[in-house]
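User: Sequence recovery, please. Input:
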């Protein structure tokens, strides 16, 4: 099914029948729920107030992992679940998820045996879905794998394996998978109210963010999958509802690949704030993060704090001989974690990443917490509960073996279009029709003009930011380059979608205002 936002909107507005399942929120959790619901045969509608994965789900550390930190905390059940889901995701989206080696550098005599044993436990918990055996490395082997690691005092290292992925690309593919299975997934459609009949939720009021039009939609069950905005929907349902979300901000910086050549990532198991710190190769750059800072109010565009950037640079300097400075930062981005309150203090680093499922007196189903790796299991639990609340015909979950849109087993990871998986051929056809569209959009980034056309035509990209931040990852990889790309991206989008010059100018201006926050001037 070719995504067509206008056609889906018209169907929603003209459809007087009840939807089986209405999902509010188009991040990892909501999209996963839409895939699960639609693949069971339920009539499914997903509504996202902005763009798919606009919030937390495009701002992760890009890891599909069991969670070494949760092992340290003794949360074995979460690690087991996450390792199993890691294995399933590698099978179901091999074009987006890959095996990544991580090295824990050891500078004290006890760290080698300590982390070596820990990683053996990690391997064991993965069982038959394991992706590589961990082992201890000598000092020489560690330096061979990590030539830019700080060598003074280095005793050796421990190598282990986890998964790495492109988060917003997976989100787009999940939206497409849901549509392939008959769901309607609509971005820029904000739920402004919950409809009730006899105190029970019976639908939602929706505002089309592009036209300002509002309309009502009837549904048998409504799912609140809005991440850091969960409390807003709970309050819409019950003005006296207690807040359950404790937002925590995680910041990452992007550096050039020279700071960590080779294929291995670095994992620092313990920093001053109790977090794990990663330096990971990603899209031919190095992603370094993250922080864990409690925040008061959630925002669609969180901004990195000065002290968070200092924290990351300070730790990067401890481990990388290149000693990165502010001048070396290509982009800095912040994301908010929707942690569920335990009612105990505000140390967000120690709050569990387990997911929480709630059903209100009116029948609103709320799914909160969790992490990208376990999105599929969260969705399964949510739809099981929603189907029971709505009295829908019982249908088994089929997503364990459901191939995600774009599925392609053997991809050439040196080809910049490999993230599109089986859609890559269709993009190449666009270039065949117009060879100019094969040209790069910027010399410092791999993206080509045809990807802009594809994003508008097949991936529901509405704004320049949709293309530069989430359909491609230009904003996160090199914010200044992305600003330089914006006028050409706006021109290509306008040509494809029939927008005028005023639209282009406004889009460029809006995009620059967002992208400026990703540039960290020294």
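Assistant: Recovered sequence (522 residues):
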């Amino acid at each position: 099914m070719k995504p067509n936002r206008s056609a889906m909107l018209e169907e929603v507005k003209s459809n007087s029948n009840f939807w089986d399942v209405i999902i509010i929120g188009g991040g990892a959790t909501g999209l996963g729920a839409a895939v699960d619901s639609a693949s069971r045969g339920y009539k499914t509608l997903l509504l996202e107030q902005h763009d798919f994965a606009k919030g937390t789900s495009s701002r992760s550390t890009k890891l599909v992992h069991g969670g070494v930190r949760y092992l340290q905390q003794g949360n074995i059940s979460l690690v087991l679940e996450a390792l199993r889901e890691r294995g399933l995701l590698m099978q179901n989206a091999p074009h987006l998820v890959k095996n990544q080696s991580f090295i824990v550098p050891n500078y004290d005599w006890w760290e080698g045996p300590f982390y070596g044993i820990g990683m053996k436990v990690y391997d064991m918990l993965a069982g038959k879905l394991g992706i590589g055996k961990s082992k201890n490395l000598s000092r020489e082997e560690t330096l061979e794998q990590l030539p830019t690691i700080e060598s003074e005092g280095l005793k050796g290292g421990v190598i282990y394996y986890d998964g790495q992925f492109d988060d917003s690309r997976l989100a787009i593919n999940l939206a497409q998978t849901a549509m392939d299975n008959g769901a309607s997934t609509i971005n820029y459609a904000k739920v402004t109210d919950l409809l009730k009949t006899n105190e029970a939720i019976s639908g939602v009021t929706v505002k089309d963010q592009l036209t300002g039009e509002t309309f009502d939609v009837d549904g048998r069950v409504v799912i609140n999958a809005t991440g850091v905005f969960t409390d807003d929907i709970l309050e819409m349902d019950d003005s006296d509802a207690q807040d359950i979300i404790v937002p925590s901000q995680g910041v990452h910086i992007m550096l050039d690949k020279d700071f960590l050549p080779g294929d291995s990532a670095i994992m620092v198991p313990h920093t001053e704030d109790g977090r794990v710190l990663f330096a990971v190769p990603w899209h031919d750059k190095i992603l370094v993060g993250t922080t864990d800072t409690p925040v008061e109010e959630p925002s669609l565009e969180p901004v990195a704090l000065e002290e968070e950037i200092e924290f990351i640079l300070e730790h990067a300097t401890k481990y990388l001989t290149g000693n990165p400075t502010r001048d070396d930062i290509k982009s800095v981005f912040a994301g908010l974690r929707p942690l569920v309150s335990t009612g105990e203090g505000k140390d967000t680093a120690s709050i569990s990443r387990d997911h929480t499922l709630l059903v209100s007196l009116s029948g609103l189903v709320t799914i909160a917490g969790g992490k990208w790796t376990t999105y599929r299991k969260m969705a399964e639990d949510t739809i099981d509960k929603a189907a029971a609340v709505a009295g829908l015909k019982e249908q088994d979950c089929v997503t364990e073996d459901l191939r995600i849109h774009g599925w392609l087993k053997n991809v050439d990871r040196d080809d910049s279009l490999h993230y599109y998986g089986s859609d890559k051929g269709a993009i190449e056809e666009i270039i065949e029709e117009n060879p100019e569209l094969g040209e790069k959009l910027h010399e410092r980034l791999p993206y080509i003009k045809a990807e802009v056309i594809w994003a508008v035509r097949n991936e529901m990209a509405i704004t320049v930011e949709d293309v530069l931040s989430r359909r491609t990852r230009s904003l996160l990889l090199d914010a200044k380059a992305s600003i330089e790309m914006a006028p050409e991206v706006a021109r290509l989008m306008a040509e494809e979608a029939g927008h005028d010059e005023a639209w282009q100018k406004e889009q460029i201006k809006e995009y620059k205002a967002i992208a400026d926050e990703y540039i960290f001037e020294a």
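DSSP finds 16 helices and 18 strands in the chain.
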